Amino acid sequence: MSLGILKVEVDNPRWRPLEDDWREIAPHLAQDAWEEGKKDGLDSRLNNLQRAFEQRYNETFRGIGVDKLYETVGRDIGLPDRHVAEICDTLENWMFQQWLEGTYSVSELETFLDDLLESLNNRVNAIPSKVETVKSRLVQLYERIDENNTRFAKVGIIGRALNRPGDIFNAQTGLLTEAYHQRTLIQAWNFAEKLLRRVTAELRDRLRPEVADFRVGLSSVNDFFRRRIEQTCQDSVRNNIEAANVVKFFEPAGVRRFCRSLLEQEQWQRSWAGTIRRAMVESAKEHKQRMSGREKHFAMLVHHSSRHPMRCACSRM
């Protein structure tokens, strides 16, 4: 959530990376706390500074407060229009377009998805150690913050003349900025772990089987046409019965030219393959509409094309 995931988050100009968010707001919080100055002979500027950071953390960070933000997005994470769906739909649409444009084959996309799942699993497993590192750093920061509070309370007349309160105040601003950024990171990493586990499960249990089913369906179609080609082009002696009223003519030079053209005109082949893919998708969309289906992308092709290889392959040829 350092960067937005949903459109409403991406389009929000105030949705900045976590570290940038705290770094940019810190000078404003510090200025307000410093301008409050002394009251009733007490210098509460350092306390005012920490109170301002705490209020932003609890109430105004991204309009809701850190804990409340991650509690809300964590609760709604699996809804159809929320974060898991947005990530998985975006990825699936990209994969589908890569296949449709002929950039990657289905088998290559399966390999890509397997590598992605492995990478996500490694990232999830690394999160607990990241959280522990952040917590350790937070302990160090609060020790230094407490030291500054003690030093600020003991500044005497000479120290005030040398502007030591201002120096301590500025140092405390930097420490509080990092401390509240680290506190935010703890909540962010906990949310990231939950998010990645849900995304991994969705990709592994839904998308991966759909892509595999689609590859199997394509293999069935390829096997069907391969058998047809073999039946059409066979010319064995055993089947060459003189009594049969069948005459087959082959022009060797023409066959060689045709084979050579297939090798030389790769762009033509890609164009033909793209035409077939698009025809297959359009046929699946039409069948899906007639059947009031709700499937998308690879699942749509599995349910509305691959099960009818002759129809989808030949209806638009």
How many beta-strand segments?
2
Name the helix and strand elements from N-terminus to C-terminus, one letter apiece.
Answer: HHEEHHHHHHHHHH
- Number of helices in the DSSP assignment: 12
Mean pLDDT: 84
The proportion of strand residues reads under 5%
Distance from first to last alpha carbon: 47 Å
- Based on Cα principal axes, name the global outline: elongated
Helix-and-strand structural type: mainly alpha
Largest sheet: 2 strands, antiparallel
Q: Which ranges are low-confidence, i.e. pLDDT below 50, for 5 or more consecutive residues?
A: 309-317
Query: What number of structural domains do the residues give?
Result: 2
The percentage helix is over 70%
Strand arrangement across the biggest beta sheet:
1-2
Describe the structure.
- The protein is mainly α and about 325 residues long.
- The chain folds into 2 domains: about 5-220, no CATH class; about 250-315.
- Helix content is about 75%, strand content about 0%.
- It contains 12 helices and 2 strands.
- It has helices spanning about 5-10, 20-35, 45-60, 65-75, 85-100, 105-155, 155-160, 165-235, 250-265, 265-290, 295-305, 310-315; strands at about 40, 40-45.
- The protein has a two-stranded antiparallel sheet with strand order 1-2.
- β1 and β2 form a beta hairpin.
- α4 packs parallel to α8 (about 165-235).
- The longest helix has about 70 residues, at about 165-235.
- The chain is elongated and about 110 Å long.
